[in-house]
Amino acid sequence: MAKKKNEAPLTGITVSKEEDFSAWYTELITKAELADIRYNIKGFVVYREWATITIRKMYKKTEDLLEKKGHP
């Protein structure tokens, strides 16, 4: 089916998180370009540079919060 001339391409998340979490998460990671999913190996994820930086920052914030609350 051909697109209408004024119809914008779908750029958002099209899968409902509540209906299919796995498909929603995969679409999120793909569209945000956080991981390279060309390699179809279960459990094998190649994170892109900005995703790795973000993950490190999240771990650091979590560690700081846990230490602040007295967790070892």
Tell me what you see in this structure.
The structure is a single chain. The protein has 2 helices and 2 strands. It is 43% helix and 6% strand. A two-stranded antiparallel sheet has the order 1-2. It starts with 20 loop residues before the first helix and ends with a helix. It has 72 residues and is mostly helical. The protein has a domain of 31 residues.
Report a brief summary of the structure.
The protein is mainly alpha-helical.
Task: Identify the notable features of this structure and list them briefly.
mainly alpha, 72 residues, 6% strand, 2 strands, elongated, two-stranded antiparallel sheet, 2 helices
Rg for CA atoms: 18 Å
Q: What's the overall geometry?
A: elongated
Strand composition percent: 5-15%
Low-confidence stretches: none
Largest sheet: 2 strands, antiparallel
Mean pLDDT across all residues, rounded? 85
The succession of helices and strands, N to C, reads: HEEH
Strand numbers in spatial order across the main sheet: 1-2
Number of helices: 2
- Please give the number of β-strands: 2
First CA to last CA: what distance?
59 Å
